[in-house]
Design brief:
about 220 residues, mainly alpha, about 0% strand
Length: about 220
């Protein structure tokens, strides 16, 4: 492949990653909104959209492997292509989390329909959902701009998400301890918080890949 064509293909790959990131962010924002509003219809739409994210991952991975095989890239181009493989996987897993959140929304609605003992969504969970979505948006913006400093700011937010998860788990366990009839509800809430905590982890991974592409420095496992 001639150099001009290779450069164009890299640009197209970068655009594909950007589009996939935008689709994943939209999916997560819709999943969070559906959770907060207890909107089963919106949750169903989120679950259906997961197939598109899976398809995007396959296309990006195949394209990246072909570019590496055909061009034997070095330096910054090789870093970008190596990072692209990991980014596609991270984005696909974030899509899975969006689908999982939507299923938790439907699970909570099912408990209500069955007459199970439940409570309103904990305020901390609502705050965690919004903060996790913000963290993902920050990570994707940093990635699109290859902004290492903004990516580092994302890394520092992960502890906040972890704190939310611990506090929610503590409050739910206390609630269930006092009223065992709410155990099924409590399990759904704990699982929902766990999905959001994983979202924070994946946003962190996106930020780490951004730093790798921008600076050639591998910071994974350093934070």
């Amino acid at each position: 492949m001639v150099m001009g064509t290779f450069v164009n293909e890299l640009a197209l790959l970068s655009t594909s990653l950007k589009v996939m990131g935008e689709d994943v962010a939209a999916m997560l924002n819709k999943a969070a909104a559906a959770l907060i509003a207890a909107d089963e219809s919106a949750a169903d739409e989120v679950i259906k959209s997961d197939k598109l994210i899976n398809q995007q991952e396959n296309v990006i991975v195949d394209k990246t492997i072909n570019l590496i095989a055909a061009n034997q890239p070095v330096a910054g181009d090789l870093r970008f292509l190596a990072a692209s493989l990991r980014l596609a996987t991270e984005l696909e897993r974030i899509g899975d989390l969006g689908s999982n959140l939507a299923r938790r929304t439907k699970g909570l609605a099912k408990l209500t329909k069955q007459g199970e003992q439940t409570e309103e969504l904990p305020l901390k969970l609502v705050q965690m959902a919004k903060r996790s979505a913000d963290m993902l948006d920050m990570a994707l913006k940093a990635l699109a701009e290859r902004d290492a400093e903004s990516a580092e700011a994302v890394l520092r937010l992960d502890d906040e998400i972890d704190d939310f998860n611990r506090e929610i788990k503590r409050c739910v366990l206390e609630t269930v301890y006092h009223d065992g009839r709410k155990a099924a509800w409590g399990l759904e809430i704990i699982n929902t918080a766990a999905h959001l905590e994983r979202l924070g982890d994946h946003a962190t991974n996106l930020a780490e890949e951004t730093i790798y592409m921008a600076r050639g420095k591998n910071v994974r496992h350093n934070y």
